[in-house]
Design a protein that fits this description.
The structure holds two protein chains of two kinds. By secondary structure, chain A is mainly beta. Chain A has three helices and 20 strands. Chain A has helices at residues 37-46, 190-198, 266-272, and strands at 4-10, 13-17, 55-59, 63-67, 71-77, 82-84, 87-89, 95-97, 103-105, 113-118, 149-151, 175-181, 201-203, 211-215, 230-231, 236-238, 246-248, 255-256, 260-264, 280-285. Chain B is α+β, with helices and mostly antiparallel strands. The longest helix of chain B has 13 residues, at 18-30. The chains are: A mainly beta, B alpha+beta.
Chain lengths: 289, 204
């Protein structure tokens, strides 16, 4: 029988994520996948998995699991105190865990989402080619609950694992995100674009895997009409007529009817995925390529 | 066509009309540009999403300038999807009044033309359908309903559509269908995809 991880506690929200299911936009299905993609990739590399293996995305810590066989795990992203059988272990490192030893990820001091990867990958039935949970469309494995048993796939090759990857963790202070203006920046006044870049913006508690909502200055429209729905990319900063602008994250719908004033660069969307409610966000423009 | 960059991962192409969108979509689907990972059509735009590790917004924009889209044919009658509808929607009377056709006329107009899926995106399996004429153009409801049942058939603006699952919605509801629009275990899971032709048939 394959190894398994018994889920003892999940914290506010833990879901299975891999790198998502691109290519199904024509059916209205979102890309989904890990909100912080670079952290997922790193966790997988540390345990010797392909980068797109399924792992657990943990929101604000609180995950407790117990393997029933010897496993190798890594925790990346917003790493709160990580303990194995009560002993502290490092984040961003490959950790050997003997059977029966409880793994606990405490709430992080900075950042929002952490990734627990296990050598072999989490083995749940893929849906439309991915093991990711899409919370908007309700596709993929259900949200994790205490009592679940996550099967760990047998790894075909056992790599010698790299010890530690020193990477900067999420910060508690202001986060700067690089943006390219458009595609609908001309739907806003010049004063609005200036206000966008001056900010300040504060992350709204009503944020989730669909988007990071930002409280800040009003962004005045140049064109008052309703925008016909159009395709949107991850990282788009969508501005509704009333209510906070939103940076679209992993589970965003394929199309939207609110104009997008700017788009956050792909690597910086991973930073946006780590922003906590109340944290300050600044936007800075980079040139078009 | 007008090209608008979307960060470092996409190009939004603005076109004259839906037919131009579908023509460009068909061309790019048949002859993919290097590094392009997804195409998202809408009423007047086509989003071309790219992998920034393989190409760039600049390179894709340049390649798009050189594309000559083929002319889009009308949906072939053999490709038509039939959707049976019981026309007892809560807004049928209102739609009849606003269009001047009366409820019976709305049904006749809805079943009497071929609809084309322009794009999807509101939810898995949801297709925005455009008809052949503008007899059934009605505004959205001023106040959306918090609950529209799965299978509800509606009108909004120039579109008709079927709700794949229960959700809030502001469309004018004219009927309901039993056909399953989205089933993740079916192959293909979505009944409707961009370009699919649809005929509504009065049932029961």
């Amino acid at each position: 029988m394959s190894a398994g991880l018994e889920v003892l506690a999940t914290g506010p929200l833990s879901t299975v994520q891999d790198l998502g299911r691109p290519g199904h936009a024509h059916w209205g299905v979102s890309w989904s996948g890990a909100a912080d993609r670079s952290s997922l990739r790193l966790a997988n590399r540390l345990v010797g998995n392909p980068e797109d293996a399924a792992a657990v995305e943990v929101t604000l810590g609180g995950l407790r699991v117990r393997p029933d066989a010897d496993v190798v795990v890594a925790v990346t992203g917003a790493v709160g105190a990580l303990t194995v059988a009560g002993r502290p272990e490092g984040g961003n490192a490959a950790v050997h865990v003997a059977a029966g030893r409880e793994i606990v990820i405490a709430p992080p001091r900075a950042g929002l989402r952490s990734y627990l990867a296990v050598h072999g990958g989490v083995d749940v039935a893929p849906v439309l080619g991915s093991r990711s949970t899409d919370l908007l469309a309700d596709i993929g494995p259900p949200v994790l609950e205490p009592g679940d048993r996550l099967v760990v796939a047998d790894a075909a090759v056992h790599h010698p694992v790299l010890g530690v990857a020193p990477v900067p963790g999420p910060v508690a202070g202001p986060v700067t995100l690089r943006v390219v203006l458009g595609p609908r920046d001309d739907w806003f006044t010049e004063a609005a674009v200036a206000a966008l870049l001056a900010g300040p913006w504060e992350a709204d508690p009503d944020s989730n895997r669909i988007g990071l909502r930002l409280a800040g200055p009003a962004l005045e429209r140049e064109i008052p009409e309703e925008l016909p729905s159009e395709g949107m990319v991850r990282g788009s900063l969508q501005v509704p007529p009333s209510g906070p602008p939103t940076i679209l994250l992993a589970d965003h719908p394929v199309t939207g009817g609110y104009p997008v004033i700017a788009v956050v660069l792909a690597p910086d969307v991973d930073l946006a995925a780590q922003v906590r409610p109340g944290q300050t966000v600044r936007l800075t423009v980079v040139g078009q390529r | 066509m007008r090209l608008r960059p979307c960060g470092d991962v996409g190009v939004l192409v603005e076109l004259d009309d839906l037919e131009a969108v579908l023509a460009l979509h068909a061309e790019l689907a048949e002859r993919p540009l290097p590094g392009v990972v997804e195409l998202v059509p809408a009423t007047r735009t086509l989003l071309v999403r790219l992998d920034p590790r393989r190409t760039s917004v600049g390179a894709v924009s340049q390649a798009l300038q050189g594309v000559r889209p083929r002319t889009r044919e009308r949906p072939d009658a053999r490709e038509l999807v039939e959707i049976p509808v019981v026309y007892d929607g809560r807004d049928l009377e209102e739609a009849g009044r606003v269009t001047g056709l009366g409820p019976g006329g709305v049904v006749a107009a809805h079943t009497g033309q071929t609809w084309t899926v322009a794009f999807t995106g509101f939810a898995p399996g949801f297709g925005y359908l455009v008809g052949e004429d503008d007899r059934l153009h009605v505004p959205r409801r001023a106040e959306p309903r918090s609950h529209v049942p799965a299978g509800a058939v509606g009108l909004a603006g120039r579109f008709s559509g079927v709700y794949p699952r229960a959700s809030p919605g502001g469309w004018q509801l004219i009927g309901r269908t039993d056909r399953v629009l989205w089933d993740v275990d079916r192959d293909p899971p979505a009944l409707l995809a961009p370009g699919t032709g649809v005929r509504f048939v009065e049932a029961g």
